[in-house]
Amino acid sequence: MKRLLPILLLFYSFNSIAQVTKITGKITSADNSTPLNNVSIKVKEKVSGTISNSNGTFSLNYNGKLPITVVITAVGFETKEVVITSANQDLAVTLNPQTVMLNEVVSSAARVSQNILQSPVSIEKMSLKTIKENPSFTFYDGLQSLKGMEAVTSSITYKQVNTRGFNTTGNSRFLQLIDGVDNQTPGLNFAIGNLFGASDIDIES
């Protein structure tokens, strides 16, 4: 009995190792066969998963019984499910591009999310196209073309945006944010225009 026990433990170890399923493969785009990176590969209804690398390849170890379903998802592509029936299976997966229409998000003082047409207040915006077509020296000068806006000149390279009609450089009524960060000077308590702001090439809208 003492000699039989180590043999049984040895077979049990082999059985545990055999339950590990290694899944490898490569993911490409269906329209031009380009390798896709950062694609999510996840075992359905399980926590096991991984992502593809820059070459589109991936490797996933799963400790469980077969068959299993692998869910493959990527932004801009249709989701695909692949059934794995055998261990050490190498996959060649192609994903079809998917066009997703996204609505423009506008942040305002309302408590609910809404777009420009639904907002109860007036919203003026310079789009990326408008910035590129702006004939002014800088995009900041082009803000005075918006309704109710005025660019007050303090020097040859410095202008401050204010409400039309006030004509002062100290504008404490405006909150100027760049990527969500308040751009006002702590000592003055108002924004200093684009003196230390973003450049034209960094602006999206």
Structure description:
The chain is mainly beta and 205 residues long. 10% of the residues lie in helices and 29% in strands. It has two domains: 21-95, Carboxypeptidase-like, regulatory domain (Immunoglobulin-like); 128-202, no CATH class. It has two helices and 13 strands. The protein has a four-stranded antiparallel sheet with strand order 3-2-5-6, with no helix packed on it. A hairpin with a 5-residue loop joins strand 2 and strand 3 (49-51). The longest helix is centred in the first third of the chain and has 15 residues, at 4-18. The protein is elongated and about 75 Å long. Mean pLDDT is 73; it is low at 7-18.
Short key terms for the protein model shown above:
single chain, 205 residues, mainly beta, 2 domains, three-stranded mixed sheet, 10% helix, elongated
